[in-house]
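User: I'm putting together a teaching handout on how multi-component assemblies are represented. Below are the sequence lines for each component of a complex, exactly as they appear in our records. Could you produce the 3D structure of the whole assembly as structure tokens, so the students can see both representations side by side? Please keep the chain order the same as the input.
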Amino acid sequence: MNTDLVIGMAGSGGDGIVAAGESLLTAAALEGYHGVLTKSFGPQIRGGESSFKLRLCTRKVLNSGGSLDIAVALNWEDFLKFGGELPVGGRTTVIYDSNTRVAPDAIPLVGVTPAEVLAVPIEEMARETGGSDRAKNTVVLGLMSGWLGIGREEVVAGIRKRLSKKGAEVVERAEKAFHAGFEYAGRHPLSSDRLMAEPPQTGAKFVVDGNDLCAAAAIVAGCDFFSGYPITPSSEIMHFLGREIWKYGGTMLQAEDEIAGIGAVVGASFAGKKAMTATSGPGMSLKTEMLGLASIAELPLVCVNVQRGGPSTGIPTKGEQSDLLQAAFSAHGDVIRPILAPVSAEDMFPITIEAFNLAEYYQTPVIVLSDQEVGQRKETAEPIDAGAIRLVERRRPAEKELEHYARFRFTETGISPISHPGMKGGNYLASGIEHNELGAPTANGEMHSRMNEKRLRKFAPLKDRRDLFITEGHADAPLGLISWGSVAGIAIEAFQLAVKQGIRVKLLVPRLLYPVSEQVYQEFFASITRGLVVEQNHQSQLFRLIRMFVDVPRGIETLAKSGSNPITPDEVADRLRQISLALQRDTQQAPSEG
Amino acid sequence: MSTLAGRPVEDYTAKDYKSELKPIWCPGCGDFGVVQAIYRALANVGRAPHEIAFVSGIGCSSRIPGYTTAYGFNSVHGRALPIAQGIKLANPDLLVLCAGGDGDGFSIGGGHVAHAIRRNIDITYIVMDNQIYGLTKGQLSPTSRRGLPTASSALGSMESPVNPLLYVLGYGAEFVAQGTPADMNGLATIIEEGIRYPGFAFINVQSPCVTYGQEDQMLKAQKATMQTLASINHDPANRLAAMDLAQAYGEKLYTGVFYRRPEPTPTFERLARERQEAQRPLVKGRADVLNVFRLKKP
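Assistant: Of course. Below is the structure of the complete assembly, with chains in the same order as your input.
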């Protein structure tokens, strides 16, 4: 029996790989299992390689795991294109389509001997029962359902629902294909135990993905306007709002370009509405001038960057965490723009709500740094209680304040009451040009200094938001682990593994990345002599960003990989073990040095 | 501003739209006439200043919102139209004006004009076209004539100018007009007509640059050569005739309405409102949006 199982499957674009992964996750979730489903694609629109990695578990997990327990290759060419994204190891059961005409002892996996290799007539069964090779994914669903012992009724019901529009005949054929796979699994038991243990009593209630949940959170936050431009891997946010926002009285505008997308959002915010845009790397580069405008005009907005491989076009379909420095330092001038990063798809909800709250409170653009992994993966989640959400509205001028209204009035907090067109007496000039308290343009050096000071000072309280940092472990641990964004889900599991192994380690995951909270890091570093910063980019961007503001202990190392090169919990835990050994050597050597 | 409270709309005068900011324009700049014409047009339309949003980009002419009592937005170069559209879509009850220069509208921001037009969002876009970059001290603009020597083309321009009128007519603009401060009554009238048109209105204003412009562009020269479209019996419902006349841009100064679509297409904001009204009964509250994530037994 298994409490934690990882399945990877690859084939070509038309094989319905992702649909199969989603069916399996939904069926398992209905039974009460937890799971994370990541999808990965080649660059082609049709016919390119496509894959999923699905981790099913009896407890909540934050990543799609390491080596596969079961690997399914509909063809080897496509499977191999995913390399380390679908890692086959010594414990993997490899299943592949016998139509590939490769002998089980000749499969093209170099340097690894899987636990078990099975050639299954997947295409043949699909043709015999489903009538065409398009039913291959359904045959695989039958195989998985049989071998894992899950979801038979749920998968079949899901098939019926999904295909009902295509007619009874199609549904019937699909069901036959499923049963062919299911029965095949029954006749050919695996030598390794791949049965899932009983699901937990209180199972998952929601299945979410980061992009859709971001869009939904925006609606819950009161967002009335979205404008953006299609870009992978963020477009689902626009698709969702294009369907849903009208029901809540809002408007979605597909802009002519990335600049117009954020421009319209700046306008909507000026008009008094909560507004959001979403994009990915290249779009973020184009939006930076508008971010500067929103900063100096002190207009709230949320800008979501679903990061992908960069620079430039980079790898549009794969995640990376390489836009952190851009987010922190985008656009010219002396500015702070808060950056938030979700650690999971589920976390996208509170992070998006928080982004709107910070934007409205501080009258600033807020950047949400998601990534392809968080944006496009599906995962089981706890029910979201929208009633428990606390929403913040921008500070509007009271009637008395409108008598001698100054839009950019110097206040103790640096936050000035903000009016909007339609509000009588609140008329002012918003501008990208430096201005005085009234909004009138100025080139005066003293006024410029005072306005800069006001616009920066207002963020001071943000650094005390300790609830935007995840901390675990003993405060006096000598070893520290830091990670952020989607990779934090891996780091958190590695931390738990290390603790189980008796390693004295503590964990820090900032969900607020900028402004850098010096105090939070200083406190974390106080007990630390060695540590590890884990992130999915080449330059260790978070590590460098922290070092700009905080004295970092010399013994801190980095584990940084470019996108499309998976980092696994085991790998991080191994590094922690090595660092822990080094720590022990440090302390043994210390007396003789003294 | 509070002195306006409670006044009937018909009581607004041009002065109510004039702010206390002193323009930075050169003495004699055509833009002084444009802002006066806008005050007069707004007074005739009679909307309260706080119900007006006036957006501009960057350039001498883009200072204009600050010289009015409306809610102004002096934004960034070339991006006035996207911001103006966001404002109008966020609050369709506002009167939204947009203004800028020829560089703003036909060079750095040229890509936005076509899309504002095809959405037909009810915005009046006034371009102060002076065929030169004034604020940056006299470089070639997209409407500069071929051969023109400027700061950035010491040996003469090697490019043909954009024809703003043909350009917007080609994109399907439903209201296209041209005016000049050399004819203040005519200019105020077409701005008012543009504001009253239920959709996107484009107004090109030949607003001379007294510092870097050419002799034949000055108001005195314009007065001598300009011709109203009414005087040649142009029918503004005739789009092809409008395009034919628009070809004379740069050679002959026609003023008045080139084209006004007799049956305006529905504005984007009207369609949005209809869609909102149709969709709203489908939900009870914002939390309903989360239902799509709820696991349901098939």
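A couple of points students might notice: Chain A has four domains: 4-187, 207-388, 395-462, 465-593. The CA atoms of residues 341 and 369 of chain A lie 5 Å apart.
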